[in-house]
Amino acid sequence: xxxxxxxxxxxxxxxxxxxxxxxxxxxxxxxxxxxxxxxxxxxxxxxxxxxxxxxxxxxxxxxxxxxxxxxxxxxxxxxxxxxxxxxxxxxxxxxxxxxxxxxxxxxxxxxxxxxxxxxxxxxxxxxxxxxxxxxxxxxxxxxxxxxxxxxxxxxxxxxxxxxxxxxxxxxxxxxxxxxxxxxxxxxxxxxxxxxxxxxxxxxxxxxxxxxxxxxxxxxxxxxxxxxxxxxxxxxxxxxxxxxxxxxxxxxxxxxxxxxxxxxxxxxxxxxxxxxxxxxxxxxxxxxxxxxxxxxxxxxxxxxxxxxxxxxxxxxxxxxxxxxxxxxxxxxxxxxxxxxxxxxxxxxxxxxxxxxxxxxxxxxxxxxxxxxxxxxxxxxxxxxxxxxxxxxxxxxxxxxxxxxxxxxxxxxxxxxxxxxxxxxxxxxxxxxxxxxxxxxxxxxxxxxxxxxxxxxxxxxxxxxxxxxxxxxxxxxxxxxxxxxxxxxxxxxxxxxxxxxxxxxxxxxxxxxxxxxxxxxxxxxxxxxxxxxxxxxxxxxxxxxxx
Length: 545
Prior knowledge:
33% of the residues lie in helices and 25% in strands. The strands form 6 sheets. A 7-stranded mixed β-sheet has the order 2-6-5-3-4-9-8, sandwiched between helices. It is α/β, with parallel strands linked by helices. Helix 7 (195-203) crosses helix 13. The longest helix has 15 residues, at 63-77. The mean pLDDT is 95. The protein is built from 18 helices and 27 strands.
């Protein structure tokens, strides 16, 4: 096998964010840009000679080109085998499942998750470890350092591999095995849930569901599992064909970008009992009941509270974990169950050590992500099946289940306000200004509300002792309410300021107060403390979830 060494020079800014390196497609299409980053990954790992790599993505624009390049580079890096999903498709949770089942050395996932696709859209790449989870911050920092000193990349000269057919092809000394992207993942999910009971629910004439795949990667998975294995009527899955540009849509499962699904569940004439959606790479979810959108934070809490109904979790939960900006609703469930609840920074990689150590069973993030110890990624279809299993056992609509949950545990009224595409310098100025004022905020009163504490969240991993600082600014009120400020690490241009607002309401008589109305005092406090309007010029958020 002849390895070709190509001289190159570093690109500035190849620093991975919350979940890998994400940039505009036009940035990745620059000569040597993708190759530099992939080579930096291969230079940072060690011991890959003779090992297996998993490779796939969400089918967005440029995935097919990138996969062929990575295959040639993997052969040069010494891998013996690459498992790649047919047509280059592997959802993020499915990639994790494949890595774990086949004991692969690691995996490369090509996705920008819920970001827009197409030639003018976004592209992303991240490396997952042998446990199936995202690379640690230590690893990604090392990759970034390597990108800034790289001088050559290596590949093997070979024709493109036919990814449309299952089977084996050889590149140099490496075998490329094209696999069914659904089979391993679907088998894993079937081992967790009561498929017979779910199938009985889906067969009932008084129960109809709709799953919106948003023209993203989950379409083939949802059709295979919901319509074929579980017998849901054909057409239950809509927008089920993955398209490179997601049909011009924004594959983010929230009430703004999946408004059609929300409207359908709000229409009594639709005959729908339950709705769900997933995102670009299949790791996020939205759950919708009749005229009711379940918040991701409430969803995590409900899943934890109903774990005994699910075969895989009926024996009990070791613990639960949530990202810091996620509401404290699951904390109350954990307290009632007598199990620990861990608060981590945003990013699924922080859950990995807890799951590997057996300290947590269920995990969740407020950004529509929930999952368990079955893989090391959040998992959109897993959450949908979990809800279906609950519905099948309890025979109660999703909205009533949530309201009953509030009656028992109280309601953590919660919302996220996103200010997108802010000039990065202005966003940094806002956050740094907040940091400089933190010490003087406790004990002060703003907009008639007393601030009890303020800090910049830091986390020490209880397993390996690693420390992560500057993970989000928290303003804590004396009534237990919270306002959290954080710059998102998943965008590709400018900055996205995320403001998380939370107020606990114990009184059932006030549970029906509209969310934004209940949070109005906190919204005013957030702007007053941070100066959002005066610094950014934004008078209202771009997206409210």
